[in-house]
Amino acid sequence: MSAPLVDIRDVSHRFGQHAALKNVSLAIEPGSYTILLGPSGSGKTTLLSILGGFVSPSEGKVFIRGEDCTSVPPAKRPTTTVFQDYALFPHMSVGGNVGFGLRMRGVDGTSRAARAREALALVGLAAAFDKKPHQLSGGQRQRVALARALVVEPAVLLLDEPLGALDLKLRRQMQDELKAIQKRVGTAFIHVTHDQEEAMALADHCVVMNDGRIEDEGPPERVYARPATRFSATFMGESTILAGKVTEVANGIITIATQAGPVSLPGTLRAGTAVALAIRPEHLVFGATAGTVALGGAKVNDVVFQGSFKRVLAMSTKDPALHFIAKASAAATVQAGDTVAVSCNAGDIILLAD
């Protein structure tokens, strides 16, 4: 197996008494699109700043292409960063902005202009070379910042919430463009966001962070379908969480007592073990169905139409503290005030250590 492009080893960082990162280790493969996903204060931006050389870790090492870059300044490491505010020079033309990094590296004017035009063509802005940043839309300025970062041919491109300032429609358009550009250039992208939908749309490697640690990592399909922790199950998409305790173990099947009733699943945990069960909204079914796990009745509190589906919030009639989050079809007749039976397939229940 080849060595990772980026190898973060036991990195910790403190701002005064606050521990922003706690013994983080992470490997990034060449050509991958990695998303660092987590809430504010989870450590994702601090980790990106350490990768870019803007912050030196309190402990640990960062290797890029096998070289120790822990103390290497930003301009001398094989990374470039696209910031949320784009940081374009307003007095320079778009071409001048894109070629600025090449200018700092001593590339002559003719070569600089040619490479800047190539980078702008890559992001679909070939005609903008002589314009000023203020003449461009937000999405176009974002692409200029991307071209400026890519023109110096970094081994790793770092993106700090680059779509955060865009409206929803433009953000989704730029997600498609970012993914397409990354596939064309083959550079490893490491992208910070707190937007779960953005993570699933872009990543082939998703890293879920919380309180300075990595909670879960892997392909987004796996992280969503089989999250490793309770936090990951609730942050990477929504889940209904049932708290429970194993009451019986027999022939590879465990029975778990929950506030919605007993649930039997394949497993080997010992009796008395506290667990949590997570169920994704699309897997909850209103109405009892043969062969499914019955989760009792629920009173519907709210129904929100969201285009292709209805988001339904309901409260268990057995335990008011248990709230179900479900996705029903757009044509479903369920409405607030209804009392419904709730069930799901046993194979769709995610068993988590509590």
Question: Any overview of this molecule?
Answer:
A hairpin with a 2-residue loop joins strand 9 (205-210) and strand 10. The mean pLDDT is 91. The protein is α+β, with helices and mostly antiparallel strands. The chain folds into 2 domains: 6-235, P-loop containing nucleotide triphosphate hydrolases (Rossmann fold), CATH 3.40.50.300; 240-353, Beta Barrel (OB fold (Dihydrolipoamide Acetyltransferase, E2P)). The protein has a 6-stranded mixed sheet, with helices on both faces. The chain has a 5-stranded antiparallel sheet with strand order 13-12-11-14-20. It has a 5-stranded antiparallel sheet with strand order 15-19-16-17-18, with no helix packed on it. The longest helix has 18 residues, at 168-185. Helix 3 packs across helix 4. Helices cover 24% and strands 37% of the residues. It comes from Mesorhizobium shangrilense. Residues 6-236 form the ABC transporter domain.
